[in-house]
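Researcher: Please predict.
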Amino acid sequence: MSTTTRGPIECWLTDMDGVLVHEGVPVPGAEKFLEALTTSGKRFLVLTNNSIYTPRDLHVRLRAAGLQVPAESIYTSAMATADFLNVQRPEGTAYVIGEAGLTTALHAVNYVLTDIAPDYVVLGETRSYSLGAITRAIRLVDAGARFIATNPDPTGPSPEGIQPACGAVAALITKATGVEPYFVGKPNPLMMRSALNKVNGHSESTAMIGDRMDTDIVAGMEAGLETILVLSGVTSADQVDRFPFQPNRIADSIADLISLVDPD
């Protein structure tokens, strides 16, 4: 593991899938890492581009896997999208393709969900994309609705293998309309800045842990954070050098980072 660092890490941001859990199973060391964060009093936030679930949903799912993460310590791309839209056009309207995580976040900022001349078409993750819903989204974007997507991930994991995700469906809508979406989730630094604000963190003393070079690491780097790549998820060791940017540290898994949380 590389030892390049900028000083003590006081605040931790970490991806969820591939870092803490893999296919619903906790990554070895994840439980002890979270315990170390809690006992040391370090501020932390679990970030995920998965917009399907609410923070309470994810809290329960993680608890079932043996990991204790309070709902208030979870920040999703759906929440980041709602925060963004609330700033851009408060109390606006949106046609939404997504599930409870996204609709709940938008309702929380007083958005009205409608398919009648909405301000935005908002595309998120869902377990099954409806051709009818996608067709409606295409027609609304073609008619002038602004196009927002929660995250650019083209595929996501499932027990049967990869499946199309938000980025792939966004490409379909773009192909039909010629309109590119604005992606709010990682690697957009907007999500990282919002996360820092939520934990009162500072870039000079905050680390971002992730398993993807193209979302987690680049997002942390562009936000000025220390970046730590773990090899327990998507990115393998032989792929790292292919990227024009590098993480500050590389570790086999989150188990190797426990000593960094509380060196004493």
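Model: The longest strand covers residues 43-48.
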